[in-house]
Amino acid sequence: SFAELLFARARAYSAVGEATKAISDLKRSAEMRPIWADPPALLGRLHLRREEWVLARESLERAAQLAKPGSEAWERISGDLAAARKALEEAYCVCALSGHGGEVSSVSFLPSSPLLKDSVGAALEGELVVASGSADGTARIWSLRRGECLHVLRGHSGPVRGVAWCPDGSGILLSASADGSAKIWQLDASAEGCTLLKSVEGHTAALTHVSFDTYGAVFATTSEDGEACVWDTETGLLLHRLEGHAGRVNKGVFHPANGGRSLCTASDDTTAKVWDLAGDVEEAGKCIHTLEWGDGLVNDVEYTPDGRFIVVVTRKPGSVKPFFRLLLFSSVSGRICRWFDGHSATITGLSWNPSQAEDEEVVTLATSSRDGTLRLWEMAPEPTGAGAHLLE
């Protein structure tokens, strides 16, 4: 039968290390012959090999139900299932932080740096510190080692939608709120307090995101008013007001390698835009690229670590053909290079592999989604059309 042919091909793929292709064939084989134990058994073993414990357990539980109890196949499946369950038990939460009175919308780790050692570093020696923003209108600073809240930052009159530590490790924290303001806080040298330095207001609607440039000299806020603003961190003065989007702006990120001279924004108007912040007085703040796919709201955007490319996250839910897509654009030309499909619900987060060498052509991206999965992708710059994820 065709199910057996697919299973045989999956075994061949598995033998030569082509796990992704093997998994695809095994899923199809199991659908065609749902009472056959072999496809889910091999599928479970492949997930075990890839350390995908939940998927391994699900497949092996199905295989155990189909196999004849007491048979050699059943014994092997039972052993694999026990291994998957043990791995799940050993995969534990390191720290759970509770205290907010509403949904937590943003978190940010305090970076380590020589500046930190001179200021708050002595008081926080050995600590891992994280800030969080919540719908309860507060930001909190936590010690992960102790699992407790160090400070509660009050002052916003609406939900806190974003928090970001200054990358220089000086202990400066930004919070952005639905009340339309962003606040600049300083963690005191003793780490016993956190002082409000400034509050900046320039938007006419709720803020959606806040981010620093690479050096922490400037920061950007985005808003439901369709604008992005760039501010001086030290003075709190507005440097640029970026107008051009026709819908809510969801995020703004600085180019990682050019010292805050360009910013990319993502909007519900179905576009992402790249802005020049380094020109003369007349040119600075102008849009130099509009990154368009033609359809779907843009809810997230990130530069690749070397800054040569931009990953744009789009979503089009509720349509006849809903999609949740990653698009790879050149940051130099603004042209699309590749697109990636795989998630079946809104993509909620992006994170690059921090251990890859800077000169590597292909980089690995992790994405999280409301479809309940985490996926890994190889981001290659070649204009080769559709891409595929490495791991689910």
UniProtKB/TrEMBL annotation:
InterPro entries: TPR-like_helical_dom_sf, WD40/YVTN_repeat-like_dom_sf, WD40_PAC1, WD40_repeat_CS, WD40_repeat_dom_sf, WD40_rpt. WD repeats lie at residues 130-152, 153-188, 200-241, 242-277, 340-379. It comes from the Eukaryota. Keywords: Repeat, WD repeat. Coiled coil: none annotated. Transmembrane segments: none annotated. Pfam families: WD40 (PF00400). This is Uncharacterized protein.
